[in-house]
Amino acid sequence: MRDFIDRLTGGMTTEEKIGQLNLITPGDFTNTGAVINKNAEETIRRGNAGGIFGIYGPDNILPYQKAAVKESRLKIPLLCGLDVIHGHKTIFPLPLALSCTWNMEMIEETARIAAVEAVADGLSWVFSPMVDIARDPRWGRIAESAGEDPYLGGEIAKAMIHGYQGGDLARPETVLACVKHLAAYGAAEAGRDYNTVDMGRLRLFETYLPPYQAAIEAGCGSAMTAFNDLDGIPASANHWLLTGVLREKWGFDGLVVSDYTAINEMTAHGLGDLQNCSARALAAGCDMDMVGEGFLTTLQNSLKNGSITMEMIDAACRRILEAKYKLGLFDDPYRYLDADAPSHKILTGSHRKAARKAVAESCVLLKNAENILPLQKSGTLALIGPLADDRRNLPGTWSIAADWQECVSVHDGIKKLAGDSVDILHAKGANIVDDPHLAERLNVFGETVVIDPRPPQEMIDEALATAKQADIVIAVLGEAKEMSGEAASRADIGLPECQKKLLRALKRCGKPLVLVLMSGRPLTLAEEHETADAILMTWFGGTESGSGIADILFGAEIPSGKLTASFPVHVGQIPVYYAQRRTGRPPTGDPLEKFRSRYLDIPNDSLYPFGYGLSYTEFSYAPPVADQTELNGRDAVLTLRVAVTNTGDCDGYETVQLYITDPVCSITRPVKELKAFQKLLVKKDETRDAVFTLTADDLKYLNADGDAVFEGGEFILHTGSNSRDTQRISITWR
Prior knowledge:
The chain is α/β, with parallel strands linked by helices. Helices cover 30% and strands 18% of the residues. It folds into three domains: 80-313, Alpha-Beta Barrel (TIM Barrel), CATH 3.20.20; 350-565, Rossmann fold (3-Layer(aba) Sandwich), CATH 3.40.50.1700; 619-733, Immunoglobulins (Immunoglobulin-like). The protein contains 22 helices and 27 strands. It has an eight-stranded parallel sheet with strand order 9-6-5-4-3-2-1-10. It has a six-stranded mixed sheet with strand order 11-16-15-14-12-13, with helices on both faces.
């Protein structure tokens, strides 16, 4: 590879090298941003583009690849990318939902299927995984994240990289992965997208950077910069981040691409004109300019005035050419452009089967009073709500290639599973939102929110009349797909008031009430928790949503999902997360004790904590047992066992979680930190051991320089079914 690229670059002009640093979108084939590049084919013929993105399909991509390979002087093939976030055309549950499976094999399989379909549709590069830690559910892009925990986020990042890249990019049906958004994009102030990030280096290294590092260590081939600034420097021009940490500390040798016009937007940040911003980005370690064409139009002038060097251009160009070489594009520029592939490799039966399983495993059972679930396949069921028979919203956010008509609604999923044994009555009951101005904003990419012309009370009355005829009521409520995702921050993360009114009215009917919730973020559900008899959080499940939800509702699958982001009682608690740092004045059991760190009007704790999720069976935990409680030396190994017994009426999966506390340290530490987990199938009346092996490395912490530090002493190990309900054992490790 090195010799090949040496020969190639030796014959390239400066303009052609800079051209490789230019990533363009050739039209408004898909909606991924507000800017498009004009005259794309002519740009490619001149050798002024290293890649394209935003389109898919072999027939659509082929003309551009031919322009590069047959009509440009050096015939260098293009990278072809797209935002493939949770599946390509077979849409899986949102990343936040998939994280709730705690099933790394399943998550890797979803990425693998996404890669197969992406390759079949002409793509060689996917802008995924997004590994931003998100502890503020007001931020809409929490939907694309793995939630609030850095350890779990790192494990999911590795699984997705393995799924996309397969360990060797030269193998068939692999794509170049792109970890994003470097860095700390999920910590935007006020939960407002694109906003500034303000945090110390300690918090950055211990919480926000580990998932990126895990992706790099797993072999991720590319990385994308974030929109936000860090320490006053936008990420795309942050030399400390892109060179000091990413390349020098972590040893990353892949390509770095900016986010969509992020380099241009540095002018609005206050860093000067496009030429200055482009020069700073290249010098910082950003190799490729997405859409903005600042590199293309200004780097030659910056080279002349000495603000950048030829070595910087050469290094960036080389990294892009290396990615193409590893993908096999120089051997066969058309290896991703098989016109017959889409017909037999996209939306296949096996892919849909995997998607259905993923939906069921992503669902989190939040409440189940009197074991109202699972339902029996008999009687009359009232299926009510604006999302009960909806398909347009099911793909969720960032499902660019999705065809909503391929999605299975909840109504259709239940009908197919239950057949004629259940009489299904249906009423809309309420709109997703009543505000036409909000609906207009939510319909920016196509109509997903339809406001019924009937008066709201007439819709509720119809729903009540329907409910009174039924044995049980299922209310399918939640967000529209565009209420979460990019540029979809919400100050109020509760259900819209029109849906709340419907739920209150249904409660007054006196019928058993099951609430099925769809959203892309945690919601404030204090009222709903008191109102509904059962609550099933289904998120947005994608293509097989209705089938997977029906499987859970009727017990064909047993719920096993566990939350990966805490649900606040009230929006005023945000950010709320389990791994809080300790305070010198922690709250006590006496609510009247003054001068403690607590609210006057709400509890400190979340409504549903990280790691929480119920099943249709019950599990009891024995106290954790360690093979030794006094350990010496860095080579020592600790084995911890937790006996879990299924005391309920059916087999089920349980995710056993291990947390640690470091009670005495040179710096303040979180109250608990996730260190390991195991998802076990425990059959009825069976007891199984979760076995965890710990070394001194597992007890290290990251300091403000990003270095792992071990300080011996006492450690408290917590085991349980979630971050709140745990049992503990103390060990000493010198």
